[in-house]
Amino acid sequence: MQAVTSISSVGAENLSLSIGRRTILHGIDLPPVHRGEVLAIVGPNGAGKSSLMHCLCGLAKFDGRLLFDGVPVPAPARERRAWAPHIGYVPQNTGIRAKISVMELLLSAQKSHTRSVAVHKKELERAERVLERLDIMHLGQRLCPTLSGGQMQMVALAQALVLSPTLLLLDEPTSALDLRHQSQSLKLIRNYVRKIDEGGTPRAMALVILHDLNLALRYADRVLVIDDGRVSAHGALPETLSLDVVQRTFGVEGEFVQDSRGEQVLVAY
After folding, report:
1. I need a labelling partner for 138 at 20 to 30 A (CA). Which of 16, 65, 113, 269 fits?
2. Alpha-carbon distance 160 to 182, whole Å?
3. ABC transporter domain spans which residues (predicted)?
4. Exposed (0-12), middle (13-18) or buried (19+): which is 77, by Cβ within 10 Å?
5. Which of these, 168, 170, 157, 154, lies nearest to 211 by C-alpha position?
6. For 76-122, how does the pLDDT look when each residue is reduced to its tens digit (9 = 90+)?
């Protein structure tokens, strides 16, 4: 099996998922998402957003093609392991019952991709840097089971970022966060994927499931709208997220207004 050093793009062709007799995803086409881009995945509850995320990160068996760098990803799980170190996945439910501290969690995450058992200075510094950027350094010595839902969500994001992945798959990473940490987390994600690496290219790409359409408008470059297991809209923001798309997908009326920065904000009625 050829070694994989990074992932430069992710896409899907005719991706379908069935559980029993129920079809969850119907022939999803995801045009390539490249490094430097944030794709927001939006849609009503039960539309299939999390199911799509499970397919992308290898947790669900699907029909169709998943493409990394334009090349179909092999179906056998053992073949997909080559890509695992380059993917940072944050699930919707992030509870960790193990009685370890947040710092121990971040250090063990780094050890999972190395053969060394000793803690190196650079690993400790990397963990501290991520905690600081997320403004949760004070949680470093807290035991994971003692954290609130919002705190654990921040820690789960830190756990993904500490591995320096080139592909971030984030399932509602802001659902339990207050306003300040919502903005802080998404700003960090956007800055992370756009940062230029030593090779002169953006560091990573991110696919983020969001329920707040205004967060998608503010922090994402593109949007994939899913409704009833099908893609109902895809394209650049803010153009793609029109009032017609919002009304058709979510069944609400509304209007777009400009905020003080000149950016569009959706006001739903």
Report:
1. 113
2. 17
3. 10-253
4. exposed
5. 170
6. 555 566 778 889 999 988 777 788 999 999 998 887 766 665 667 88
Angle between helices 179-194 and 149-161 (to 10 degrees): 10
In terms of Cβ atoms closer than 10 Å to its own Cβ (0-12, 13-18, 19+), residue 29 is: middle
Buried-exposed string 224-233: b where 16+ CB fall within 10 A, e elsewhere: bbbbebebeb
Residue with structure tokens 């190196």? 120
The dihedral region occupied by 36, where left means phi > 0, alpha psi between -120 and 50, and beta the remainder, is left
| pLDDT above 90: percentage of residues in the chain | 75
User: What's the pLDDT at 97?
Assistant: 78
- Of the candidates 52, 49, 42, 46, the one whose C-alpha atom is nearest the C-alpha of residue 16 is 52
pLDDT tens-place string over residues 191-226: 999 998 877 889 999 999 999 999 999 999 999 999
Domain chopping of the chain, boundaries: 9-268
Query: What value does the CA radius of gyration of the chain take, rounded to a whole number of Å?
Result: 19
Summary count for the chain: helices (H), strands (E): 8, 12
**Interatomic CA distance for residues 125 and 140, integer angstroms:** 12
CA 258, distance to chain mean position in Å, is 27
Residue recorded with tokens 């739903």: 268
CATH fold, domain 9-268, is Rossmann fold (3.40.50)
Q: What is the pLDDT of residues 136-185, one digit of tens each?
A: 999 999 999 999 999 999 999 999 999 999 999 999 999 999 999 999 99
- Look at the chain and count its residues: 269
Q: Report the amino acid identity of residue 180.
A: R
Q: Which two tokens stand for residue 26?
A: 């119907």
Task: In whole angstroms, give the CA distance from residue 209 to residue 46.
Answer: 13
